[in-house]
Amino acid sequence: MKQSVFLHQSELFQALLRMTNDKISNKKSTYSANELKELFLDGSPEGFSLVYDLYSASVYGFVFTTLIVKEEAGVILSEVFMKAYQDRESFGQFQFSMLIWLIRIAAKICLEGKTEEEARVIKESILAHFFAQRMVVAE
């Protein structure tokens, strides 16, 4: 059952990306953070694609460094963006940046179905990732 739901979500994810590839591949978007937020919250395929283009590398890096099984990173990345698209209204209530919101979704997905020991290791990895990011920003 879980697999069929994922396949359906994965197909939707791919379709959303395909719908906007031609539209934005040849132009540079100069949306403000608020304009991008509005496009995304409205469910615009272009908004989704722009958010994916802007944040997928960072979210993938977070997921890759967090996971025990690295091969799951690509699958989880698509789950993160599907969840974000489906729950985009909740971002309107979130007080932090879109990247932090996406990382929070990724962390929750990474912890789903893990044993206590696996969850402990993942949580330690998440903390290490954020401390490393803060050190880079502080320098």
Describe this structure in words.
The longest helix has 24 residues, at 2-25. The termini are far apart. It is built from seven helices and no strands. With 139 residues, the protein is mainly α.
Query: How far apart are the termini?
Result: 47 Å
Question: Hey, roughly how much beta strand do the residues contain?
Answer: under 5%
Q: What is the alpha-carbon Rg in Å? A: 16 Å
| Low-confidence segments | 1-10, 15-28
SS summary, helix count: 7
Element pattern in H and E: HHHHHHH
Short description:
The chain has 139 residues and is mainly alpha-helical.
Question: Could you name the key traits of this structure?
Answer:
139 residues, mainly alpha, 7 helices, 79% helix, elongated
Topology:
Elements: H1 2-25, H2 33-41, H3 45-66, H4 73-86, H5 88-91, H6 98-111, H7 116-138
